[in-house]
Amino acid sequence: MKKLLLAVAAIMFSVAGQAQAQTKSDLEKIENYLNSVKTLQARFVQNASNGNVAEGNIFIEKPNKIHMEYAAPTNVLIVGNGDYIIYNDKDLDQVSNIDYNDIPASLILGNDIKIDNKNIKVTSFYKDAGTTIIGLDYKGKGNLGTITLTFNNSPFELRQWKIIDPQSVEISVSLYGTKIDEPIDQSLFKFHKNKNPLKQKKGR
């Protein structure tokens, strides 16, 4: 019986060691992807647990530049130039500053992301043949809860992020037609009140 218990313990230890090594490999893959991406542009669909749905276009250039424009009927524009972020509600003609920590994308806007379980902690992890999903809790996230990132495995790319906002509403942003490391018009990262850089560009 003692030998049997020792054998079972040895098998369990071996399996646990393999799982830990695999997890480390996956974390390195996620880190390498997030740190290697310099620009990202995509269409997005945003779904909220309260039933709200919105869509639009997102442009990211690291470090810390973002242009996120929602289509009607939402009509919201978020522009970050690397130093500050402007939130423009075009229907209300209101412009306000928001902090980088108040947008979930802040985690993927940096150049040196390290999932070290100190500043960025893993709260959940799942992987199957087609998808890798990781929950991360990170310092400097403001009032946001854990962010969950979903990746396609082949090719490995970010497809979605999900957060819980301060009102306990779950919000997911799914990316479509993603383009990585292609040049982005720098005017998109400058705020132009009552102007739409995308329409201006198309009209030329």
How is this structure best summarized?
The protein is α+β, with helices and mostly antiparallel strands. The chain has helices at 2-36, 197-202, and strands spanning 39-48, 53-61, 65-70, 76-81, 85-89, 94-98, 120-127, 131-138, 147-153, 156-164, 170-180.
- What's the level 1 CATH class? Mainly Beta
Helix count from the secondary structure assignment: 2
* Amount of beta strand: 35-45%
Query: What do the pLDDT scores average to?
Result: 81
Kindly report how far apart the N and C termini lie: 81 Å
Q: Biggest sheet, in brief?
A: 11 strands, antiparallel
| CATH topology descriptor | outer membrane lipoprotein receptor (LolB), chain A
In which order are the strands of the major sheet placed? Answer: 6-5-4-3-2-1-11-10-9-8-7
| Global outline | globular
The assigned CATH architecture is Clam
Low-confidence stretches: 1-22, 196-204
Secondary-structure element order, as H and E?
HEEEEEEEEEEEH
Helical proportion?
Answer: 10-25%
What is the radius of gyration computed over CA atoms, rounded to a whole number of angstroms? 20 Å
Notes on the protein architecture:
This protein has 2 helices and 11 strands. The protein has one domain (2-202): Lipoprotein localisation LolA/LolB/LppX (outer membrane lipoprotein receptor (LolB), chain A), CATH 2.50.20. With 204 residues, it is an alpha+beta fold. Residues 1-22 and 196-204 have low confidence and may be disordered. A hairpin with a 3-residue loop joins strand 4 (76-81) and strand 5 (85-89). It has an 11-stranded antiparallel sheet, with no helix packed on it.
